[in-house]
Amino acid sequence: MAQLVLSNVYKRYDDGPKGLFRKRKVHDYAVNNLSFTCEDGEFIGILGPSGCGKSTTLRMIAGLEEITEGDMYIGDIRINELPPKDRNIGLAFEDYALYPPLSVYENLAFNMRAKKIPEDKIQEAVSYVAPLLKVDDLLDMKPPALSGGQKQRVNIARAIVRRPGLLLLDEPLSHLDGKMRQTLRQEIKRMHHEIKCTTIIVTHDQMEAMSLADRIVIMKDGVLQQMGTPLEVYDDPANEFVAGFIGEPPMNLLPATIVGAGDGFEFAFEGSPLRVAVPEKYNPVVENNMQVTLGVRPVDVLIQPGTEGSGAVPVAVYENLGDERRISVRIGDTLLNTTTAEDVSYHHGQIVRLSFHAERTHLFDPKTGNRIRSNVEWR
Known about the structure:
- The protein has about 375 residues and is of the alpha+beta class.
- It is built from eight helices and 21 strands.
- Strand 4 (about 70-75) and strand 5 (about 75-80) form a beta hairpin.
- Helix 2 runs parallel beside helix 4 (about 150-160).
- It is elongated.
- The two termini are about 35 Å apart.
- The model has no long low-confidence stretch (mean pLDDT about 90).
């Protein structure tokens, strides 16, 4: 196992050297001042939308990309200029990249044979790893005869067969169908508990990150937005981007105006008669006519049949998904989503009454996107 430290890491690409008739173009940072630590044996997920710099970060850790600025350490060793072969890293790509003419056993043994490891040690390593990934019954088969899920199992087994100090997984489940993704997620988690290898997975799927990782690094445009446990980033998002990116369905983000109401305040929504009381915990940090973004998760929106009046709105969409029901209502120009496990049924245009779980609401600054924190936060 190994501790990984990234300290103020930057990566910027350019279009090559300047020529006689060609101006050199320098692009914005693909990774911008990224710092985090992955402890021994920890499972870290790097999560973000396409183009956010997560795969670039993984490739810099693996030594496949040069670092523009900053430092990386594995244990006490600075690895900025260390060749990939000397970093003791296992890497499984999104594409399986198996050798078609070779059997599964030979694919697993290939890198160890290249390092002149004795054959009995190779056989011992393969015999240990193959059952972990459930490929022990595939050792005599060749990649063209395998399914996508089997190929990815072999791909990951090949990455860990040398018992690396650090295992890097670059979107390993993106090519698989939904059922296989769920199955292989469970297998990866079980494998991690078995070998206790420090592991980093890159993914754009927040369900993968939430289910697999001990902590999640959330990135946007090359910048770290938040790092925390799955529960921390779900319950305590640092900004509007994290709030809307984590969760399925995602958090509702409603533009609102704070208006005075007696001794307290209410949220008013443009284009809607709906008014919602501002929780008392926010009274010290809000003021009349203040513009905010109200964040509330679908499970924290309470809905029941109602009539015209305060808090009553028509149903826009009703979905019965079997284990849960999703009801959407329109608040001005924004569609607000709710979910419930209750056995209820609504139809388009039916009037329902809304209320929010006040202590589970979040406020964000609409200009910066940052969280507006109260003096007392829900936990």
